[in-house]
Amino acid sequence: MKPPSTHSRRILLKRGLALGGVSLLAGCRAEESRPLQSALSAVSRFNDRVQAGLFDPLRLAPTYPDSMIQRPFPFNAYYREDEVPAIDGGSWRLALSGLIADTAPWTRGALLSLPQASQVTRHICIEGWSAIGQWSGVPLGDFLRRVGADLNAKFVTFRCADDYFTSIDMASALHPQTLLALLQDGEVLPRRHGFPLKLRIPTKLGYKNPKHILAVSVGNHYTGGYWEDQGYNWFGGS
């Protein structure tokens, strides 16, 4: 067996780091000492720094032919499918805040009127499964530039109708494959997969792809995330 390439080793390292903090914390109990929790938090922060250092904003995630799209695409959430929020797309508005010049809210129609991009990429879940799907929407970087976001800010935070939230680094937000997805498989984004708007970011693990987005904020204050606050690595690179 030949040794893995440098690129393969980088991928394995990033995935190992993303899983490492979770596997360590999975065995922790509430009664365990604060020093141990502090040590694990320090390891997680170190992992985040290493993953950020390995991230190449010019490297594209692999893309695939339509023939490899998985249908139906798997449902995944921290709740049952019958608990997926029902959102009125007509009254829905995307709220903007933070270091953004124009914070006027956006409708689905307004987002759909912007230049769109499509991708067939692999969604990789930290639970160990993956699936290839097709998504279309507005490149997040283009949207941030259009609304006058401070592109030197550190974080972009997403808050969602299902009480989920997460944040990503600005370099990942500006990556050309990071989409505000409005369509899946050529159709309106299904309710079970995030209607009316989800983040599709194939350079990160699935928990960094929030669904049912209500608000986007740009800033320099670390805001964490639903799973990240419970021990998942924040950077979450795939």
Task: Describe this structure as you would to a colleague.
- With about 240 residues, the protein is α+β, with helices and mostly antiparallel strands.
- It folds into 2 domains: about 5-55; about 65-230, Oxidoreductase, molybdopterin-binding domain (Sulfite Oxidase, Chain A, domain 2, Alpha-Beta Complex).
- It is built from 5 helices and 9 strands, in the order ααβαββαββαββββ.
- It has helices at about 5-25, 35-55, 110, 140-145, 170-175, and strands at about 95-100, 115-125, 130-140, 155-160, 165-170, 180-185, 185-190, 200, 215-220.
- Strands 2, 3, 6, 7 and 8 form a 5-stranded antiparallel beta sheet that branches. It has a 4-stranded mixed beta sheet with strand order 1-9-4-5.
- It starts with 5 loop residues before the first helix and ends in a 19-residue tail after the last strand.
- Mean pLDDT is about 85; it is low at about 1-30.
SSE topology sketch:
Blueprint: H1 6-26, H2 34-54, E1 95-98, H3 108-112, E2 117-124, E3 130-139, H4 140-146, E4 155-160, E5 165-169, H5 170-173, E6 179-184, E7 187-188, E8 198-200, E9 213-219
Parallel strand pairs: 1-9
Antiparallel strand pairs: 2-3, 3-6, 4-5, 4-9, 6-7, 6-8
Helix pairs in contact: 1-2
Radius of gyration from the alpha-carbon trace, in angstroms:
18 Å
**Number of contiguous helices:** 5
Q: What structural category arises from helix and sheet content? A: alpha+beta
- Gross CATH architecture of the largest domain: Alpha-Beta Complex
Mean pLDDT figure: 85
Name of the CATH class of the largest domain = Alpha Beta
